[in-house]
Amino acid sequence: MTVRVAVVGAGRWGRQHARIFSGRSDCELVAIAARTPSSAAERAAEYRTAPYTDLDAMLKETRPDLVTVCLPNEEHFEPTLALIDAGANLLVEKPLVFDLAEADELLRRAEDRGIFFGINFNHRYAEPVVRAQRAIQDGVLGELVFLTWRFGGEANYGDSPHANLIETQCHGFDMLEHLGGPIRSIAAQMTRKTYGAYSTVALALGFENDAVGTILGSYDSSYAYPETHLVEVNGTGGRLTIHDTVRRLTLSRAGDETTSVWEAGYFNDEARSFHGTFDRHVDHIITALQTGAPPPIPATAGRRALQLAQTAIASFERGSRVNVEEFA
């Protein structure tokens, strides 16, 4: 079965959507939609497909099996809702939305329509993350005690004062729960000293398994810095670190002064590529579509990340620790 795919969005990351689906032998890129005729035409010409600005016309004329949505972060709700109501199977970019009521509306309508509704938390497919999760599941680290996420770069300016937390550190929420299990409570500090938004956040986390954790996320840093992204997981039997998502994994055992290191080999360009994490996710998405399975990362994961973000916001505003279930 060849999967017919339409891409909604012609921006920088939208190009990655077009690149992947146009290059797969099991997919046909049938359309690219954008907000302006010129941007739609330019990107569609680049990938030899049809341009659209009208979603209804795109769906009617191209009949895609899957629509991917990659639009500006704070403009996801209305187009996603329209596509759900039209019955389109969807892969959306993070964040799902910025408002929990909107997230719940999207999920409810998608469930009512019985559509395929996935979200692209592509960090899960980085080779160091895949290996880290396997080590944790195999008990190499023993009982988990603490987990840390640090990630920061230049600001992506938007209307929301919590853009950094919701649209970027959602990867941190998803990753720490992916590796360490559900987060139970959050205590937050935030600063808006640079340009008016809460551009740097520091969060203390409590997990359901009684581990603790931290997230330090910033729009006041630079992606040019080395080690701009670091994940650390410590257990009673060992410790692992993930460096710059795809660059390196280290694994140490308690009491042993030697450390095992994974780095992509000379010819292993696929594993060292951040963009390649999305290719890996798409492999699983296409298999799920072709076999009638649910999405490998369902859109509910986007709602969960937003729930955690809203818990952090409430904690900061109240000046106290807040339980995550308050926003269930």
From TrEMBL:
It holds the Pfam family GFO_IDH_MocA. GO terms for molecular function: nucleotide binding. Residues 165-324 form the Gfo/Idh/MocA-like oxidoreductase C-terminal domain. InterPro entries: Gfo/Idh/MocA-like_OxRdtase_C, Gfo/Idh/MocA-like_OxRdtase_N, Gfo/Idh/MocA_Oxidoreductases, NAD(P)-bd_dom_sf. Residues 3-119 form the Gfo/Idh/MocA-like oxidoreductase N-terminal domain. Belongs to the Gfo/Idh/MocA family. This is Gfo/Idh/MocA family oxidoreductase. It comes from Kribbella pittospori. The lineage of its organism: Bacteria, Bacillati, Actinomycetota, Actinomycetes, Propionibacteriales.
